[in-house]
Amino acid sequence: MKNSPLAPAFRAQVAIKCVAIVGALLAGVAQADSPQRVTPLPKYQQECVACHVAYPPGMLPAASWKRIMGSLDKHFGTDASLDEASVREISGWLQTHAGTYKRVSEEPPQDRITRSQWFVRKHREVDPQIWKQAAVKSAANCAACHTAADKGSFRESEIQFPKGLDARFRRGWPD
Ligand code: HEC
Ligand code: HEC
Q: What predicted TM-score, i.e. pTM, was given to this entire model?
C-alpha cells in the first residue's frame, strides 16, 4: 500500500515523458521539411528583416552563421552592423538552430544559402536567367516567389509566379 498514492503521480510523469518524446520526434520531422518550426527570436525578426526576409536558421550551418554575424560591417556589399549585445544574442540563437534543413552541413560559398547544393537542386527546374530579372532581383529575394517566406515557410503550394515576370519563365514552374 506504500506506493499506491505515488502510482497516479508516477503514471502522470510517464505520460508527460511520452508526450515530450513524441513531441520531440514530431518537431524533428517537421524541421526536416519546414525549416522554421523553431520559435522565432524577436531580436532576429527585428534586426535582420530590413533588407530581406529572416532566413530560417536551419538553412545554414553554424560556422556560416558565425562568420556572417562576425562581419556585419561588411555584409554582402553593405553595412548591417548592430550593437554588440544584439550580435551576441542573434548569433547564439542562429548557431543553436543551425543546419537542421535538408541535412545542411556544408558551408556554402560566401556563406550564401543560395549557393548551397540543396538550394541549387531545389531550383534546378527554373531558368537560371530568372534570378536576374527585374521582377525577382536576386535568388536571395526569396519573397519574390515564396509568398510565406517572411514566416519561414517555403511549401510548394505557397510558390507564386512573380508579377511582371516574362511568361517564357513559366516553363518548369509548378503553378
Ligand atoms: C542593410 C541591409 C541588410 C541588413 C540589415 C541585413 N542584411 Fe543580410 N543581406 C543584405 C544584402 C544586400 C544581401 C545580399 C543579397 C543579394 O545577393 O541579393 C544579404 C544577404 C544575406 C544572406 C545570404 C543570402 C543568400 O544569398 O543566400 C544572409 C544569410 C544574410 N544576409 C543574413 C543576415 C542577417 C543574419 C542579418 C541580421 C544580423 C542581416 N542579413 C541583415 C543586406 C542586409
Ligand atoms: C524566382 C523565384 C524564386 C526565388 C526568388 C526563390 N525560389 Fe525557392 N523555389 C522556386 C520554385 C519555382 C520552386 C519549385 C521548384 C520545383 O518544384 O521544381 C522553389 C522551391 C524551393 C524549395 C523547395 C520547396 C519544396 O517543398 O519542395 C525551397 C525550400 C526553396 N525554394 C527555398 C528558397 C529560399 C530559401 C529562397 C531564398 C533564399 C528561394 N527559394 C528563392 C522559386 C523561387
A: 0.85
